[in-house]
## 1
Amino acid sequence: MPDGRDAAHSGPTENALSGPTEKCGVVGVSLAERDAARPLYYSLYALQHRGQESAGIVTHDGFQQHSHVEMGLVGDAFDEADIEGLRGSAGIGHVRYPTAGSVDKSCAQPFTVSFKSGALGLSHNGNLVNADDVRDRLAGMGHAFTSDGDTEVIAHDLARNLLESDLVRAVKRTMGRIHGSYSLTIMHDDTVLGVRDPEGNRPLCIGELEDGYVLASESAAIDTLDGELVRDVRPGELVVLQPGGDGFDSYQLFERENTAHCFFEHVYFARPDSVIDENLVYEVRRELGRSLWDESGIDTDVVMPVPDSGRAFASGYAEAAQEAEAGVEFAEGLMKNRYVGRTFIMPTQGERERAVRLKLNPIKSTVKGKTVTLIDDSIVRGTTSTQLVGLLKDCGAEEVHMRIGAPPIVAPCYMGINMATREELIAADKSVEEIRDAIDADSLAYLSTQAVADAIGRSRADLCMGCVTGEYPYDIDGEETDREVSRPEIAETAGADD
Ligand code: AMP
């Protein structure tokens, strides 16, 4: 499974990460009167690209929780009766990203737990670095865990804190103990909360609906509900949606000098129609494409995207090329079969190669006899680019030049995006020229880290670029950090570390 455990051989110790990494979409809704289930369901649909392994919704009707969590896509996980059964005007939802190999319902979310002072539901996007430390401490105090996921650790810690403190203080205590990446939607009885880690690694935003408020990983979910994006949840902020949908309260619980927004959200992961940290993802990708032309443009007959994310890059690239009076034309040369899921997580290399071929097919007339620039957002293992360069050449392309809208991925992601292990990452031990040779392209160029930061409109110091620099903004066993960070000391007894 492409998470931190696999990477243990190449640096981090076995417990650098605990459990499966969570790369997901989260949502929370609080409304005046109508049931929250349907808006939650539509939001999960809008966030489907963030996770296809499982989908779940938990609501609260003022008396009790109702939960439905299933493996599979949102459209398959719920039928009409399931949605009808999810009573109550408050709720949270979750879609979980697939990880190769283990398909395990115990990791599906929202995670729920009932305890003395109420019912708790949690949806988590991100990944904790010190979940094992916190779990050991809680296990020592008698907590029993049903999964090895880090979300359950957060839920138990919060449940325990809620026995002795009010909601805001309890969340603050938990945030003071956990270290890593987390955008959370939480439901405590019928109160819905949103929490973003102090570095703001994963996105989370607030939207206003006619009759209430919504929290979602991406603003596209708010658009789907005909809502208005209010703003991002700030790094280190707790947002409490008032029951009844009247408004929300904000508590800035932690503040850091620098943020660590994940640049890969902008490059690949998020929907192009989402606004993340005040930037429309589509425009950032077009700007990345323009920068690719500025840094390594080549005057071929056509520029062709690897769909879907490559499209905005190629359109920016073509525009910049035309401004420079080069004759590069934008061409849709690869058609995507939209019914093939993510090829990335197929367990064997053979299956991954077959899946790329199933997924993408060239339009021969736009390729034959042409010199082609092919643009993708990233090269991870190199499977996609090797396959596509070969395919375009088989279709009669005279030259194929590969341009990538991000720097080489040289290290794993510990913060919640499903990357390969160092061993599998083609750029971990190969130069750009060696990679060009391996994928058999006529030329290959990546984008610089500075161009990425400029396109996103953030300083380098406010981005997490661990996967392209090998230096992380969190304290991860066996890895370098790019700033002064350390994990919280975990005290032996409850309350002692407040
Ligand atoms: P690879 O074929 O292993 O080199 O992977 C590169 C391709 O996978 C590119 O087309 C990317 O758009 C896509 N990709 C990159 N990162 C991920 C990820 N974390 N999950 C799924 N697909 C990805």
## 2
Amino acid sequence: MCGIFGIASTKSTRNKLYQGLMKLEYRGYDSSGISGTHISSKLSTIKATGPIKNLRTKLTSLTNITTGIAHTRWATHGEAILKNAHPHLSENISIVHNGIIENYIELKSLLKKKGYLFKSDTDSEVISHLIHMNYEKTKNMESSIISTTKKLKGSYAIGCINTNYRNTIFAACKGSPLIIGKGINENFIASDIMPILSDTKNYITLDDDEFAKITPSKISIFNANKAISKKVKTSKINTEQASLSGHKHFMHKEIYEQKSILKEMTSRYVGTNKILSNIFGPGTDKILENIDHIHFVACGTSYHASLVAKDWIEEYTTITCTAEVASEYKYKKINVLPKTLFVSISQSGETADTISSLKKALKLKYSNTLAICNVAESTLTRLSKLVFLMNAGPEISVASTKAFTSQLFTLLLLTIVISRKFGNIESRMVKDIYKINEIIDSLYKLETDIKKISTKFKNKEHTIFLGKGTSYPIALEAALKLKEISYIHASAYHSGELKHGPLALVDKKMPVVCFLPDNHLARLVLSNLAEVEARQGQTFIFTNKKIPKKNKKVEIIKMPGCPDLIAPILYIIPAQLLSYHVALKKKTDVDKPRNLAKSVTVE
Ligand code: G6P
């Protein structure tokens, strides 16, 4: 899994390759590399481990390269060490790969028998040697790409250069995204639109089983050996670069951006007493009126948003919902009853598990498919019949924050739209939505207290998070945030489940964080907390309920009162701040936590 970028040009491309690759760093940052051909047709390659900036000092050795391919890696097969960094070479051929070659072991042994020496432990290296072997037989790259891809099982987006083909990139894909940018006197390949936007907004999407030959002046696309013509699309994405705007980290900036994003979404979609018509696309109010069941599918943080949605929708309608993680959905038997809507949720729209789930759903008997996504022109939005774009702006920090609250907001809008036929509650719910904007400011004022509390987590190895009702997915999401960026183990439980096992973990060292909005469930959660306190656990309670602070082992983070409907959106914000401050104390790389990637494009 990884990010791919390439430029077919007659001019020097060294810096552009580096800058473009930087925009794909969200796809992984275990190692990176660039290969390019010189005017003299010589092949030069640089590689570095860690973030892409580590390539900078090596760039001078690429001074005269014109056409080149670049890669940023998120390790799947083979450790995050230099020998496993892409590009992978086979004499005069260099390749970059995003995806997983499932049959690489058998291909590797076949190639070894033919005398090929492997320098890496990756699955990707078989591609460079296979292309080389086929090219040696035919001296024709087009047929070599066809015979190579025929042999590959799994998923791939490949960029390839062969020094015998001056200023030419060959590209192919199946199951991993690849676009071709159409520039002026130079053309591009990339995993997504971002690296090419400073040069062109015009692009072609390469579909499964297609391959392309790209020179500075020509893009030729083939399906098997048949040349095909494809539509050139124009991106509408704004090229404005994301900057820190005075914040120390993107995560902090994005936590603070939630205020303006939710305000903007309110003014875009919410009227005085009702949600505006057809906000999910033309004719969608009618489509949504006809739904009896919903299947939500997502990963990570987006999955947690779907759990809240399931509770909301089932509370206010008779619609039944399921929420599945995409990596499970794909491999399960799915029973689709009549009038079932499939909803995929994804910040990036590029998560492989979610994409393949949608592909599966499109073959089943759903009445419709809706994608809730933050990135326009992503694979998910291209595949789904209905699309809701959240427009929360680029989320740079790997740990998702503003995408989560935007997803919750969108799902709340969906709940209101589909609950219309179940009673006259829209205007009351809309009133609650407006309260988000009134209350949100007071949450940021808690940061000073949260900063102090974060000290108590710094040296912990384990934590427990609790919630009940819609606060349970918030406990899951808060625990995920802490794990992701501070590397402290965190488990989330329904508060009522504590006594069925996890209570055994509680002793005087165990921090237990609880989300406790003052609602009809609060009484029960308080009993569960009493069980923790009786075992001397250290409790941190986010609540607007007046509860006596019995001893110094109880920390109360005083939340503003709010309608129960919007509590999940508000309660997660101080929890995001807590994990941020714990990570700062632990001096981790907040925006780029180890081992993770913003968008996981392999299954
Ligand atoms: C990765 C990210 C998570 C994210 C998940 C789903 O694992 O690190 O933060 O929640 O993917 O991403 P998506 O873009 O589909 O929402």
